[in-house]
Specification:
4-stranded antiparallel sheet; homodimer; Aspartate Aminotransferase, domain 1; 11 strands
């Protein structure tokens, strides 16, 4: 990048603030961010706030006159920052641990400055073509055949909604034109997913007019994987009852336990009944990059659509959810509507990405993903993900040998679910164990040193720890484990006293 | 903001790049952006590319080893930048002219570094509360009553989809649970919008299972405004035919001409038939801040939901679309699904914004809007929008007195639609006029100095010029007008020769 020519002080670009004003403030913010990234371990991971705490400090109305950046950034430091839960903290182990990496942040800077809308090829050719090329890189990294074309959505919720809309369209029931309501010719329609599928699948079923009843939840086996024989039976039963199956959602890496549905078996069933297969691999999909994990994804290429989120475990700032589709023409058929004011001469020879989803406006999200993949290289990405999995396996070993704790699920990737079962109290009723573990989780998180979340597995309340931030070291994981144990000890002490 | 402590050179934050590496690169990028903003008039507005031009230069696969920022940023300059259509250029007059303003870019920097997910209050209290507070500021600026609560979506497409999903839910047909398909108890359902409504309204009708037939398009009057009497008649006719009306979408500022539907009349009809009224004011809504424009929005507060996009005309980088809802509990009812792993102790006392829309994951978009509103102040925003409208009115006067051009629509805001009608050729057939104006538009855009788009109004092809970038001056508008005229002259010359 060439250095810019020197600007005159206080020059103005009409009504925006002057470029040198930008430069001065951007340098301050860059210093602030560098400092933040350097010292992030000193912040409490979970914001120690009560609802309304921040709201009551902020002014009730917008200022009439402009305010200085200095004032705004002071408020950012003093009002906003204490209310931030630090997702970029190396000891953020809740939900799924993510990373706003250095190249990702730099990518967002450029993207915000260009401010292009990648709705049409013409509206920014490089934005569309870079999206296609980078997603083709990622496709190869994941070992998917080139029949899959990708595009970026904001979230997996939207990617799955789009995939399920395509499934509906593929059924050939003229739903695009005639809709679903008041049609005497339409039977009830159904999707199938495991009881462990993400809530966004059920939400999509609601949005698309299938309703909650239009999603059949298939039970899981002891390892929280969809039971394919039950799926087959459910489809058979529905067909007999006059319900039309439309598609199946297999999850490779569920949210609670990161369990992996048997996608090969499910794909066969989908083939047999001609159903759309959507694979939700939002979190775990990136691990297909690792040769030693590839077997878990065997036959996922028979899916019609797959979602993988680089903003989860590929070190890209949110939002960046990739939807791969083996039948993009169906996606297009489900969504394409081209009003006159968006027609272009290139519509035959170029791809207009707005045609493949809900949103017309599309940020230039490929830029940050391009910076991330190039900066780390495939090798850097593989090393980081492999290490996260290794940390999780080491922690798993420590939990397994501790008689006060019990693992509640297998650990195929880097997420663990476990609970505290005091060794002298093995006969505690389930409700009491839940109460104990809720208290333990609250106490752990109140230390401010780590943030963990929870789930419930077949009625058992479990503490959930997910590893996935680039800055996380084994020492961070070990510190979390020590805090978990020492907070458990404290509870045990109190419990013992109370019990007398 | 305090200066950070000095970092050791080449320190590393485990597997991410080091903070001082960030600082070094962020400073380079900041300089690049300042230079870009300073010299943006030197870039061709519309990228002079053919489909595939960029794709063929980029490598076919991702690098295995890490690459240096220097290499990546050189590629950005040499490969990506020439393929960018410059939406941040002051002579980008196509679609809707937007601004990635200085405070907006700075806000995105901070947001990317924090990388929080505002799905739950707990997952970042400040992100949720700042969103609520800033949208309350904006609500006051727009003159809406405090019964309206706001939240940010990525685009108006999604905001309108959510609003229409709430309309469906409000009808009380148990659609959330039972869906629409195969129900003998459900009549066909219908939304109503004008023929000039945005394509995203029709797309939402398709997604929600109403189908294209489930959206009744009401004709417009000579000024492209929905004809309320036809709306009333259509509703009456549908009810007689056994179709159940669900909601009406009024557009205040349509995409083609920025026409303003008679919202007061439409609101009365909605009240009479108990229909959900959604107002699409994605582009023009912000002009309600101007006292002299407020009358156009009179009675819009009777709407159930309103969408206004700060990323269109409020100088905020995309994406930032605000959905206001007078009945947020219905929106919640339509979308809320809380799996165990997302339950929090604060769900009674705090708002979890994930409950009010499609996407679970939510970027911290309020931050940039907060920076924009505070940096410009209400006064700065009013001055800028007022000036854009004034520029458009001045250009309108110039077009009106030029006998070679014809305005095709009123200009209530800052967008003009006009066409070239050679003065000696007033009897040219419509198809020939279309061909002439298509050619003219192509020639204008090929200069690289301006970018305009087009539309078709009641069969007439029109050139569309929208003003809305903060850097745009009257000289920019005048230059556009000169280019339009001189390119028209050239066509006329050719035409005269050919005609002989």
């Amino acid at each position: 990048m060439d250095a810019p020519p020197k600007s005159k002080p206080n020059s103005k670009t009409h009504r925006d603030l002057a470029p040198e004003n930008f430069l001065e403030q951007a340098e301050k913010i860059a210093e602030w961010i560098a400092n933040y990234l350097e010292n992030i371990r000193h912040y409490p991971v979970l914001a120690p706030m009560k609802p309304g705490d921040i709201k009551q400090i902020l002014p009730e109305s917008a200022p009439y006159n402009p305010e200085s950046f200095q004032q705004i950034l002071e408020d950012f430091d003093q009002i906003i920052l204490p209310g931030i839960t630090h997702w970029n903290h190396p000891r953020f182990f809740a939900y799924f641990s993510i990373t706003g990496s250095v190249p990702g942040i730099l990518g967002e800077m450029l993207s915000a400055a260009l401010n292009v809308n990648a709705m049409l090829w013409k509206s920014s050719p490089a934005a569309t073509e870079l999206e296609q090329v980078v997603l083709d890189w990622l496709r190869q990294m994941l070992g998917l055949p080139e029949t899959f074309a990708g595009l970026i959505n904001d979230t997996a919720s939207v990617s799955s909604l789009c995939a399920m809309a395509a499934a509906r369209e593929a059924a050939g029931l003229n739903i695009r034109e005639q809709g679903l309501a008041g049609r005497q010719d339409l039977p009830p329609l159904r999707f199938y997913a495991s009881t462990e599928a993400h809530s966004s699948i059920e939400k999509s079923a609601i949005v698309l007019g299938f309703g909650q009843n239009g999603l059949c939840k298939i039970p899981t086996d002891a390892a929280f994987r969809m039971d394919a024989s039950v799926l087959q039976q459910a489809i058979e039963d529905d067909i007999k009852r006059g319900i039309k199956p439309i598609g199946v959602i297999a999850t490779l890496g569920t949210t609670s336990t990161t369990s992996v549905d048997p996608v090969a078996e499910i794909a066969k069933i989908c083939q047999q009944y001609q159903l759309w297969l959507h694979v939700d691999a939002a979190y775990a999909g990136v691990t297909a990059i690792l040769p030693e994990k590839r077997a878990l994804f065997s036959d996922w290429e028979f899916a019609d659509s797959i979602v993988v989120n680089p903003h989860k475990w590929l070190f890209t700032p949110i939002d960046c959810s990739v939807l791969y589709c083996r039948r993009p023409e169906v996606l297009r058929q489900a969504f394409s509507l081209i009003p006159e004011y968006l027609k272009t001469a290139e519509s035959e020879s170029a791809t207009n990405l707005m045609d493949y989803g809900v949103s017309l406006g599309r940020r230039f999200r490929a830029l940050k993903l391009w910076l991330v993949i190039r900066s780390f290289g495939q090798s850097g990405i593989i090393d980081a993900i492999r290490e996260h999995i290794q940390f999780a396996q080491q922690l798993k070993s420590l939990i397994e040998v501790n008689s006060n704790f019990q693992l509640l699920a297998p650990v195929p990737f880097s997420t663990l679910v476990f609970r505290f079962i005091p060794r002298h109290k093995t006969v505690l009723p389930e409700a009491e164990l839940t109460r104990l573990n809720q208290q333990l989780l609250e106490n752990i998180n109140q230390t401010g040193k780590v943030f963990l979340s929870h789930t419930v597995l077949k009625g058992k309340y479990g503490i959930r720890l997910a590893i996935g931030n680039l800055k996380t070291t084994w020492d961070d994981v070990l510190l979390a484990w020590h805090i978990i144990q020492s907070e458990a000890e404290k509870i045990l002490m109190n419990y013992a006293f109370k019990g007398k």
